[in-house]
What does this fold into?
Amino acid sequence: MEIFVLVKQVPDPEATVKIKTDTELEIENKYFTNFFDEIAIEEALRLKEKFGGKVTVLTADPKRVDALRRGISMGADEAIQIADPALEGSDPFAIARVLAAYLKDKPFDLILAGRQAMDDDSGIVGIALAEALNLPHVHSIIGLEVDISRKEAKVIREVENGKEHLICPLPALFTCQKGLNTPRIPLVMNVMKAMKAQIKKLDLVSLGIEASKVGSPAIQAKVIRYLPPPKRPPVKMIKEEFPDNVRTLVRLLREDAKVI
Amino acid sequence: MALDFTFTEEQEFFRQTIRDTVNRMIMPRVKELDEKEEFPWDLWREFAALGYLGLRHEEKYGGMGTDTITQMIFYEELARGSCGFFMSVTMQILMGTYFIGRFGNEEIKQRILVPAIKGEKIGTICFTEDQSGSDLAGTRTLATKVDGGWRINGRKQWITNGPIADFATVMATIDPKLGLKGLNFFLVERKTKDRDGFVSGQRLHKLGSRCSVTGELVFDNVFIPDENFLGEEIGKGVQYAGEILNEVRVMTGMSALAIAKEAMEDARQYANNRIAFGNPISKYQLIREKFAKFWAWYEAARTFLYKCAWMIQNNLPCINECMLAKYHATEMCMYAVEEAMRIYGGNAFCTEYPVQRYWRDAKFLLYGGGTHEVLCDYLGRVYCKG
Amino acid sequence: MSNEIWVLAEHQDGKVKGITFELLSGGVEFSKKTGQKVAALLLGYGLEEATKGLLPFADKIYLLEHPLLSPYTSDAYESALLPLLKDHQPSIFLGGATSIGKDLFPRLAMRLETGYTPDCTELSVDEEGRLTAKRPLFGGKVFAEMVFSGARPQMATVRNHTFLIHENLGKSAEVLSLPIQLDPSSIKKKVIKVEKSPGERVDITEADIVVAAGRGIKGPENFKIIEELANVLNASVGTTRAVVDEGWRDLKDQIGKSGKNISARLYMAFGISGAIHHVLGIGTCKTIVAVDTDPNALIFNYADYGIVGDLFQIVPALTEELKKILASEG
It folds into this structure.
């Protein structure tokens, strides 16, 4: 199977994110490979181990390549970075257009992506890419079984209070959710390989995309202001002894917060 | 540009990978490992399967042949997890296999080094005895030349991985009267049905680093063949010891960095959340000073240690530098764990909070690779001589 | 050009979902300012009951009925909606930040080359009908206020409980049944089975009240005291990553960064220390109660009410107390 995996390096959940100006953030330099992307890489590698073929990790992040190296260290065969400074400030739809321009004439059976990237948490790029490539997609999968001879996949996706089982013809794009697998920890041998790996870099000209189609000029929904999370009132600690504290809590929830 | 303190993108990636591996494999188990006080065989096998035990050995034996800086990045990140596990791993990677990789013949390397890199055989190194530790000249374990080999007699104490070791690099004297000049290294294996070897003596219970097992090894007239002599010629043992100790000291310093940082990161979070007299305690100057001092000393210690790593990597003489850096980093760590305990106040005294573990684990750094008293005495003497 | 406010209706077993009523209530509120009509887009097959349910909540119901629209697939919904969206060019198109909304809206927005803001926690309009959307980034560490360029519709998916349901909007919708042609070959994926989670509880993202326990619960068997409390409150049961990773609870119950974001009216956390992964998922809950033995637990920084205490003592007592009170009120 020929599989492409979309990956991205994102701020670690522990990283601090500060509002610098109305439209500018200051993000602590603590990054990791997007949690859901690693699940996508793992799934691609398992399919490769089962059916043979090739796994290519792909990013449209012009700055950070560590997610690609992570992919190689886990066992991916090739890493490609679309690295054009014009991509800076692009919205997810522009990223999807760029990825589509790269992928449109490539042979593949499957594209895997994370459910969402843990930065803007949009969950758009993968699905929008499927639209651009006119591919079926399944979002937030927690189970995948490929039938190579019938060129289709049995997929389970998470929905509210249940699971949806689908059959989807290949090629397709799936976004991966926690529960699909547990990503492997890379072997040091592959880590060394990843450290030295050549990363193929492509610019927009080579993809035939005009700079006006990406970056801030192409944004349809733009940020006008960053805001801190809504401030919560200070906690009211109920300091009475048990069981009075329980009674007080119930009273406060009924009379004060009016939620019961 | 002659002076450059930046890590390369590749080194940063390596660090991130180790950090992530430690976070996933070791961090969730740290408390359990400390409490159980047993060697974690499952974790050991899982970890060995990733290939890290061959970090500094040649590729043809299953190693990775990495450079010193890469190794030190590995040590710094690994030590963030369980300190006991760190000791077992570094014993295997560095001290326990160093002389076998350097002086062992092909048969020994295939039989011992290859499975050691896979984690299937456990190795250790033996310096300390009941009357000698930092004072190597006091070594009493005796190697006597016999036909076709050597006979080893003596007892070695404080042996990391000792109770589970399959093979040991043993420092022994060929004649106590020769002092340092009589010292040599020998490969001795554990006694089996078919082979003469060492047996385990008493196991020690430790204040910290509790999941690394430590104990006594007993050599009762053990015969070893000639090829088990580890060295180019007789009498060079002390020189070899000096060479390995550079790496050991910088590695130990790396663990001091890691423990100190973990302790103070926890303390920072605590100080920002713990309210006293209406404010988080991090608002008080006496608390802030602790962080400022730690920060200054930590940054200095880290820079110095990586300078030493760079000197080792470039084959520059650096015995004194490595001693100084290890000494400084360890004292910095003592400060950090002590002050972290104070920041936690009474909570430091209960085992629910990890801060007491950092404090316990750190104490070993004062003795590993030579006590600070001996180290200081030596360094002071060198300095005064000018 | 219709210049309407559209809401994608979600329904299950004939019943319209709460999120749809919330969005319609919000839409009607907007329409008071903009003078626009509010329309529900109802797709599926066998929609009488759902249609009836929607009547008092909208000015119009666009009814798209076809066997291939049930159960939901993005393929079928997209095929049905695209021509309609192109024709009518509504001003605003809202959906739930649900397994349907988040699945479908990116495809529509990509095709229509219009703006889309996912997972919003606040929406407002000005008199011209220009939408301002607020959404969390980095799991809720910061929020972004976003506006749309000239392209229409302005699309957004919205979290549960962002709007309150207004029962008396005074509407009686005109039902417009639209002809629909679906090419079966355009529908590539097929739902073969929908597996419902055992139990009666609604998903934690939809629940009004969520009670949760973390590692402090000490073992999977102890969740029964949490379940009993949930029964009394008609709540759903959530948990932390640590508990899920231990295998004590199913992944679908996990709240936080790698799990679900909840916006419950009341969230009660028992034996949860408040790791960043977890608290990022509860930021938009209205009232938060925390009970933990550690007085320095971080969870108290995020709570409205806190008790330092043993959950094994407090949870059963709380269950009894609530039972008594709710029984006395019949």
Q: What stands out?
A: The radius of gyration of chain A is 22 Å. Chain A has a mean pLDDT of 95.
